[in-house]
Amino acid sequence: MQALMDTISAINNVIWHDYVLYIVLGVGILFTIWSGFCQYRALTHGVAVTKGKYDDPDDPGAISHFQALSAALSATVGLGNIGGVAVAIALGGPGAVFWMWVIGLFGMALKTTEVTLSMLYRNTDDPDNPHGGPMWVASKGLAERGFGPAGKFLGGLFCVTLLVSAFTGGNMFQAWNVGIVTENASNGSIPTVATGIVLAIIVGAVIIGGIKRIGAVAGKLVPLMCALYLLAAFYVLFLTIGEVPRMLVLIVKHAFTPLEAQGAFVGGTFGYAFLWGMKRALFSSESGQGSSPIAHSAAKTKEPVREGVVAGLEPFIDTIVVCTLTALVILCSGAWNRAGETAFETTPAFTQVDGNWTLGTTTLPSRNTEAMRVARNDWRGGENVFVNARWGDIQEDTNDNITRVNGSVEVDGDSFIVVWESVEANEQPVLINDDIYAAYPSAALTTHAFNIIQPGMGTWLVLLASWLFAISTMISWSYYGEQGMVYLLGEKSVLPYKLVYCLLIIVSTMPFIQTDSELDALTSLGTGVMLWANIPIMLIFGAVAMKAYHAYGAKLKAGEFDNNDAPSSSNDES
Fold first, then answer.
1. 454 pairs with which residues across the strands?
2. Which end of the chain is more exposed for a tag (fewer CB within 10 A), N or C?
3. Which residue, 567, 527, 487, is CA-closest to 118?
4. Region for 456 from its dihedrals, namely left if φ exceeds 0, alpha if ψ lies in -120 to 50, beta otherwise
5. How far apart are CA 558 and CA 321, in angstroms?
6. What is the pTM of this model?
């Protein structure tokens, strides 16, 4: 397993090089300026379209604008908003939130452009079952320019990356998080694999009905889950209102300056905050990834740009609204830089074993009073903990030489012990202090943040939200992967694909992913490879999208769309 993770991490180091993030940000800025700040039109005209003002049941497509937006949002508003934000803050610090905002803003332009392109080139041979996405943009667009084989190859390459992302970020990431949250909420009585089996049955029952059932379920599920989660977040912020201004200042300040280690947070530089904010925002909103255009391509409309404008609302809802509220809950509660839940009674020292350093096995004292108030129970076997130690050179990412040392809790009669992992170091590591921290990976940190303010609230809120968010995300991503299979191998490949997709839900809840770093490596691979495939497609055909966008805008200003019988926009270059 470690060899696989090392290989994935090596690939991620290439596909997530800093220059890749600069390029994605640059493309977002490019289309923002080129479109004349389409963000404004998304927040005005896009809202009107979503409300059904321009709906026409006779238009080609399978689902309404609202259902298309809901289906796409069900894939984006998911555990990335709960777990992804937590990972970004835990590793990148508060400054990561600022860079999530930046991606959310410019992501609106990316999303408008990529969805407009997919609508212009979608396949409506069967008006009730249209096919669309970057693969069709590449295939049909390049064929029109005399590069048919190149278009088919590029479209196929995108579909391969789409399947990688569908299986990892759209599926395994979701199931793993729900499994962990459910196991924690049940104090270990519900194993993660049991959660995986239930999720596989539910998801399978929905996706067997295709995009119409997915759209119908998403149209009901997304508003419900967003309202529930936002109400709880506002409740926490109301109770911690005095901290909100200070945290907002900290977010902006740390976006450009290093932040020293404090409590459970081991420190972070500007570059690290930028990296984690960008990565998690891209994963959460899927801006530039090319996934949500597949859902939007099923919308009933004869105006391609209209659905692109609707799609611009996604990053705003996902990142600017939902992710920000999650971030403020984590920051205002103090969960990100929390104190230890207990401390060593006698400071242990690292000893060298087989060339590595280890704390060996140590006794774990009971949780302190505050930790017991929040957790409402003492330790249990299988929990993960960590201590902070210092050794070696200053790390570029954290601007310090502090590193976490992880351990696993075991029951020893009437007491608890910790078996610590060995670390490689050229010198003897030294503990920063005697504090022992409970590990709250991903969504578990968000749960802990809610529990700090209202013990028990986070456990059940995040449990319910995780299930709803994960199910909605997995059913939409199943459809994305399905469309990739249709493009590559035809309709006959859909059923085997769905079976494999559901099987991977169960596989991901088996104990082979243990830490935030391993989880990030898996999800970053899927997101990264799709960006590498989709961004070039957007740049090649960007002029086509912008010409159609401005033509639509001119007709909108002229009042040509005041009724549903307005003439359709056309792609003059296709």
1. none
2. N
3. 487
4. left
5. 32
6. 0.85
Burial string for 352-379 (b: 16+ CB within 10 Å, else e) reads eeeeebbbeebebbebeeebeebbeeeb
- Alpha carbons 536 and 117: distance in angstroms, whole number: 13
Helix axes of 304-311 and 38-50: crossing angle, nearest 10 degrees: 100
The residue ranges of every structural domain in the chain are 14-335+452-557, 342-439
Residue 514 per-residue DSSP state: -
Separation of alpha carbons 29 and 102, rounded Å: 10
Contact 246, 464 (CB under 8 A): no
For residue 190, give the nearest of 202, 198, 182 by alpha carbon: 182
DSSP string, 158-217: HHHHHHHHHHIIIIIHHHHHHHHHHHHHTTTSS-HHHHHHHHHHHHHHHHTTHHHHHHHH
d(CA 306, CA 438): 48
Question: What is the chain's mean pLDDT, rounded?
Answer: 88
CATH node for 14-335+452-557:
1.20.1740.10
Strand partners, 417: 363, 410
Instruction: Give CA–CA dist 522/484, Å, rounded.
Output: 20
List all residues 6 or more positions away from 209 whose beta carbon is below 8 Å from its beta carbon.
none
DSSP string across 304-359: HHHHHHHHTHHHIIIIIIIIHHHHHHHHHHT-TTPPPSEE-SS----EEETTEEE-
Tokens for 553, please give them: 């805008």
Res 570: pLDDT: 42
d(CA 510, CA 74): 25
Tens digits of per-residue pLDDT, 76-135?
A: 877 778 888 998 999 899 999 999 999 999 999 999 999 999 999 998 888 777 889 999
Amino acid at 58: D
Q: Per the structure block, which two tokens stand in for 430?
A: 């030294």
Give the N- to C-terminal CA distance of the chain in Å, as an integer.
48
Burial class (CB in 10 A: 0-12, 13-18, 19+), 147: middle
Token output for 516: 């935030």
Cβ count near 51 (within 10 Å)? 11
Beta bridge partner(s), residue 259: 268
In this structure, are residues 35 and 109 in contact, taking their beta carbons and an 8 Å threshold? yes
Question: What is the distance between the alpha carbons of residues 358 and 429, in angstroms, rounded to a whole number?
Answer: 9
Widest pairwise Cα distance in the chain:
79
Residue with tokens 């984590």: 330
